[in-house]
Amino acid sequence: MAAFVDRVVLHLTAGNGGHGCVSVHREKFKPLGGPDGGDGGDGGDITLVVDSQTTTLLDYHHAPHRSAENGQPGMGDHREGKNGQSLVLPVPDGTVVKDEQGNIVADLVGEGATYVAAAGGQGGLGNAALASVKRKAPGFALLGLPGESRDLTLEIKTVADVALVGFPSAGKSSLIAALSAARPKIADYPFTTLVPNLGVVQAGDVRFTVADVPGLIPGASEGRGLGLEFLRHVERCAALVHVLDCGSLESDRDPIADFEAIEAELEAYAVEPVFSQGGEGVVPLNERPRLIALNKTDLPEGAAMADMVRDELEGRGLRVFDISALAREGLDALKYAMAELVAEARSRVVEPVPAAPVEVPRRHRRRGERAEFTIRREERNLEPLFRVRGEKPERWVAQTDFQNDEAIGYLADRLQRAGVEDGLFKAGARPGDAVVIGDDVTGVVFDWEPTLSAGAELLAGPRGTDLRLDERTRATRAEKRAEQDARRAARAATRAEMEAERRSGLWTDTDDREG
Ligand SMILES: Nc1nc2c(ncn2[C@@H]2O[C@H](COP(=O)(O)OP(=O)(O)OP(=O)(O)O)[C@@H](O)[C@H]2O)c(=O)[nH]1
Ligand SMILES: [Mg+2]
């Protein structure tokens, strides 16, 4: 039997960004031709895309760990590292994506709907891109950022206009078979249907889809039976049809009791807020328009039972239809009543349920974001500790090669420019206090030395200058001009690159503007 999997936890790791390269242009008789280390490539993203050919999450059940390719490191001679290949994972229509906390992060409806589930890490800038007038030959490059690593839960929620609900063996699958071309499995044992079957129904000029949700039993909303798994599939439906079994021989059941039991389950089930069907707000399951189908009236006891309960149900304001799914009787009236509810729901919906691909924005890399951060004073072993949190400072730390003093100096510059240094002063930090940027797992700890970098600069000249570059005293004027032109061109290229980065929201600081 083909297994159906409609819920799976994926462990995703996007590609890491490649490191930037540190390199100095070499040519005969030109020992120091300027920095030419290229940028690292970006790591590949992992993207979920709705594909109508995909109907289950079975593949992911078998192989839940997926990763995308890393970006290649930059190389000398201004060669950029190759970007890592993105990984595209096809998912069924109606797939809902939840994060580790159970929040819905995407609701993928419609062929081609896309969600970047794990973003690849940004490649690091090479030393060529980091050069400026003050820092002519940076002896460092930025590290590539690690790709995002996420555990996401995927769930399928069937996309249908009408859901058939009822006890096991009430005849839901039989009804869908009678109304549409669908050929679901039908048998006289409970829980024959384990997966909603979808059928397309045509009534006059209204065409709509019907799903036979697997049998419900009391306690379903708390997970009894196959419970919650199935109620989930009802969420997107505009209308419900109660299929009530009038031919049941079980003495403790009758259509009214069944109806009330199912209603209680619908009421207890909390619809997740993302699925508003009628524009504003979420309609709870028990408030969706509903019809009653009294089934199995081809049986004498079925017809008798229908006669006994019809008035009672109609007395509650419900529209009741006597049918036989098996003998295909009474189906037209029911079908047109369903079509009516569907048409009504469609006219209410201001923005139709998206059929066109929905582009869900990438996490991170937001535009125009400011270098915001927080500084909190904590205590560790009776010593003060200052914790800096913020997307940018934490990213800068991740880009820093701590084996390289110049890279550390560059980080200090960035932190200072973003106001972290001032913030620490204001927060009461004193030289020598511990400062942590980030959390306890990936963050780094410094002993804060606010004046050290400034002092060091006074002694050694501006950081990032290579004094040897200025030693060429015997150049001809033509040589000088050519070199200047080349530098200017290189600088313009660097600027353009940095500007592009800035525009993409990455470098909104005023890095190197002074040149
Ligand atoms: N006599 C009679 N039997 C019916 C009718 N509708 C369904 N049945 C029978 O009832 C049994 C259950 O029918 P299904 O359509 O599989 O019921 P279901 O509601 O889909 O059941 P689950 O999938 O287990 O929830 C089958 O043996 C059907 O042949 C009907 O109108 N009249
Ligand atoms: Mg069934």
Automatic annotation (TrEMBL):
InterPro entries: G_OBG, GTP-bd, GTP-bd_Obg/CgtA, GTP-bd_prot_GTP1/OBG_C_sf, GTP1-OBG_CS, GTP1_OBG_dom, GTP1_OBG_dom_sf, OBG_GTPase. One of its GO terms (biological process) is ribosome biogenesis. It is an enzyme of class 3 (hydrolase). It is found in: Cytoplasm. Residues 160-343 form the OBG-type G domain. Keywords: Cytoplasm, GTP-binding, Hydrolase, Magnesium, Metal-binding, Nucleotide-binding. Signal peptide: none annotated. Pfam families: DUF1967, GTP1_OBG, MMR_HSR1. Belongs to the TRAFAC class OBG-HflX-like GTPase superfamily. OBG GTPase family. This is GTPase Obg.
